[in-house]
Amino acid sequence: MTQLAPRHSHSFADYLATEEISGVRHEFYAGDIYAMAGGTPEHAAMAAAITASLVRQLEGTGCRAYSSDLRVRVLATGLATYPDVTVICGPSVRDPASATHVTNPKLVVEVLSPGTENYDRHEKLEHYKQVPSLSGVVLVDYRSELLELWARNGDSWSYARFGAGEQVPLHAIHCTLAVDAVYSAARGA
After folding, report:
1. Beta bridge partner(s), residue 115
2. Strand, coil or helix: what is 78?
3. Per-residue pLDDT tens for 31-79?
């Protein structure tokens, strides 16, 4: 009779130790450590264009845009991840268990990819919604010129889609994202 191997559950400390010595980024959730796939040049260009746009607009506001090197931890669910772009307003609040993870993003941006789209649109989005400081999540579609905005309105979230020629209003941080600029960066235009 075949038996399944027992599932090994990792602690957050195990994850941190793995992450510190690894050349590959990982996400952590519910005792599992998941390797993150590398992105395409187009993916990187879109994330860089969004970061650059937000850096310019946030100058002098007390908010700061970060690249995908910033680690975010969702304390309510335990998820530890690297959003493609993160905005923090005011001082960063560190995870009590890890000085390398912040817990107070104001906005996160995820550039979707074929391998992670379903996870980013569903499970990861639900994790993000548990962050009390978070006011918005932007999902960037890899197939077509489409940015999706989930914005917190009190205890609920609203959803809107923005296509070619439109501006995404990021009211919580007093910025906008031009859909055309995001995708022209990916095309090298």
Report:
1. none
2. coil
3. 887 777 667 889 999 999 999 999 999 999 999 999 999 999 999 999 9
How far apart are alpha carbons 140 and 19 in whole angstroms?
26
Residues with Cβ within 8 Å of residue 30, at least 6 apart in sequence: 9, 78
Tokens 């548990």 belong to which residue? 130
Distance of CA 24 to the CA centre of its chain: 17
The pair of structure tokens assigned to 103 is 């817990």
Whole-structure pTM over 0.85, yes or no? Answer: yes
Domain locations in the chain as residue ranges:
39-187
Identify the three-state secondary structure at position 118.
Answer: helix
Cα(180)–Cα(114) distance, rounded to whole angstroms? 21
Any bridge partners for residue 95, and if so which?
Answer: 98
* DSSP string over 121-144: IIIIHHHHTT-TT--EEEEE-SSS
Contact (CB, 8 A) for 85 and 67: yes
CATH of domain 39-187: 3.90.1570.10
| Whole-number Å distance between alpha carbons of 151 and 25 | 28
Tokens in use for 143? Answer: 């197939």
